Prior knowledge:
The structure holds two protein chains of two kinds. Chain A is globular, with a radius of gyration of 20 Å. By secondary structure, chain A is an alpha/beta fold. In chain A, the strands form two sheets. A six-stranded mixed β-sheet of chain A has the order 1-8-7-6-9-10. In chain A, strands 3-2-4-5 form a four-stranded parallel β-sheet, with helices on both faces. Chain A has helices spanning 31-41, 54-69, 93-104, 125-135, 146-155, 170-184, 200-211, 228-241, 251-255, 275-282, 289-292, 315-318, 325-343, 351-354, and strands at residues 6-8, 82-87, 108-113, 138-142, 160-162, 191-195, 215-219, 244-248, 260-263, 300-303. The longest helix of chain B is centred in the C-terminal third of the chain and has 22 residues, at 307-328. In chain B, helix 3 runs antiparallel to helix 11 (289-304), helix 12 runs parallel beside helix 14 (384-405) and helix 13 crosses helix 14. Chain B has a seven-stranded mixed β-sheet with strand order 4-12-11-10-7-5-6, with helices on both faces. Chain B has a four-stranded mixed β-sheet with strand order 1-2-3-15. The interface between A and B is medium-sized, with 17 and 20 residues. Chain A: Pathway: Amino-acid biosynthesis; L-arginine biosynthesis; L-arginine from L-ornithine and carbamoyl phosphate: step 1/3. Chain A: Its EC number is 2.1.3.3. Chain A: It catalyses: carbamoyl phosphate + L-ornithine = L-citrulline + phosphate + H(+). Chain A: Belongs to the aspartate/ornithine carbamoyltransferase superfamily. OTCase family.
Amino acid sequence: MGSKTVVMNPKPADGEEISRKPTATLGIQSDTAFSEASKRLSGRDLCSIADLTVQEMAAIMELAHAVKANPEDFRHALDARQMVMFFEKASLRTRVTFEAAINTLGGNAIFVDQTQSPLGERESLSDMARNLERWMNIIVLRTYAHDTITEMAACSKVPVINALSDLEHPCQAIADFFTLEERFGSAQGLRFAYVGDGNNVCHSLMLTAAQLGAHCIVASPKGFAPKLDIIHKAIEISESTGGSITLMHDPIKAVTGADAVYTDVCTSMGFEHEATKRAPIFKPYQVNEELMSHAQPDAVFMHCLPAHRNAEVTDAVLDGPQSVVFDQAENRMHAQKALLLMLLGGAKRTASSRNRSSQPRKRS
Amino acid sequence: MKLASIQAAESKLLLHTYERNPYLFVGGHDVYLRDENGNDFLDLLSGIGVSALGYAHPAIEAAILDQSKRLLHTSNLFYHEGTANLALRLTEISGLDRVFFCNSGTEAWEAALKLARSHARLLREKGRKIGTKFLAMEHSFHGRTMGSVATTHKEKYREPFAPVMPDVEFVRFNDVDDLRAKFSNDVCGICIEPLQGEGGIHPVSKEFFATARELCDSTGALLLADEIQSGLGRTGKWFAYQHYGILPDITTLAKPIAGGIPMGAMLCTDEAALGFTPGQHGTTFGGGPLACAVAIAVLDTMQRENTLAHIQATGEFFKSKLQELATRHDCIVDVRGTGLMLGIEINSAELAKQAAAQMMERRIIINRTSETVLRFLPPYILERKHVEIAVNALDEILKDLAAAYAGTAPAGEKAHG
């Protein structure tokens, strides 16, 4: 007996060609719409991708493209703005890209290493927030518990950004779908296959895929599926965008015909004690050349990094011609610039962003 | 307290819901129950399929002892280490994705019915055309609570409590044409026992089961497999549906899961699981630390000792002995079942009743179901020597009774499969 494939929402049947005709208009269509999304986002928190509307996500994407294309247009957009970063977990990309982002927008970053001292331990989150909001314009948190982020957001008058929690990694997902938009013109109708642990990264990717109208297929081992409430939310969103969410256990079925194949480490930060137990369970989910051969010939390989080489992905794939992992890493900075601009009220529409095509991908 | 005193006290204190047999059991070991006088009874019923590892199994004793020293209850408002571990084991062996723990079979079936209704509601909200009706099977038995009893076929279980849950229609079991005729967009779930127990040990046909799967797939209705009696190894596979290569959307487990400690479970696919959101369903005791610890011990033991293979081998031997018996006794009209879920159909209800009673007098416990069927649900640890003892006894009993019941017309319903 094969494991049953569970397709939730409008089908892309496994391996079948998916219509790339948009069923909903996702791109920002007018200056007014962009301006309204910017206005709504100003001063807001970003704890979860689900905090954003479809239109707000589209506005962030559009701004990210503009910022990347013409960084000088935004050189002083956040002059003198102060950003503080509290990280309970190690970081390379997130820390450096956030610092680079605020610095190049004219602002300043302060990094506080909390790896030895969990947030809320030395003093309450509420007291922390009441201090920080007097000095800072925005707070960036990387935590173990998602509740830490939502609690800080509730206590703080200045915006709070989730820079990774046990539930989500929204900044990563925005950058990843920005990368897909760069590559394919639009995420709408793309077949996006995530293979591996239904973890925080997977959660944010599902929600982002839903908001951008992509078909998201998640193949995970038994017991490692995404959380049910996130699946609920992603399906709900995808209903308005023409996307879909599909869960299964078979990695080959998942990547068959995929435009993008994504994986993450088998053992996320905080679950290191399970590494030995997880290794054999995740072995069939390794993204290698054989697995990639089931995807579209021009499919991209994606990973949020750091990668455990020859564990969840082979060197040949990670370093191969289909890999866009370093584009993703670069785009963390551009996407986060867009986020900072939106949340701090520095967003503006430029000629380049206005003229950006948002057409569905055309296959050659 | 002696049997007579207990009988007298119960008659004044308990609701009269059971006709009890006049035996007082005080202990047990292996496949034997021991009465107040120290007599051992070979148990081929195992508490209606519950005591899967027999009596006083050291693995179960150890699990109970260990867990009882640590934690018996937390409520479902908090975590303990048992639920996720057990759920992972159950999803691995079932092919399904998510688990809801409860306390009994009927409670598991109630959860399944509610989930199917709620899942259909979600589909309707998305614009799909799907109703609230259940198709249940003739001769089915799903339990005693109001929803379960509504999907149970026999009128005596339903009628006194009418009106029971509405929107249930019964289909002739294994009649594909009847199933197709009664299925429509109004149906939110098809309820099937892959191997009917109470109904007289009747297996679903592959064609019927496959048709039910196909019909459900065509509309988004769910296929509900009740494995309360047949599940968790009873038929020689973890689940009876695995003999057919068909995966239901929901299945229910209970009897043998925790080896005698009350426990039930409903398993479902990720898609079906979307039907419940927090607060829509619950249980106070379900998935408690003790039941989970014992269930894990049962699974560990079965996997370590390769119990499924033992069930298959012993079941085949048992069935072959019953088939031999049938060649010697005209009163046996059919031998049915798989693994250690077996039944023989007798051509007379009274003869079947007498045979079961005389087996009891010989200290061998079996039971009679569906009036004419002698049912065997022994512990999984049953061995060939026990089979021979039981079949030889039955052989002698039927020889004695045959003369008295010679010429009795067939009673009850014959095979309806």
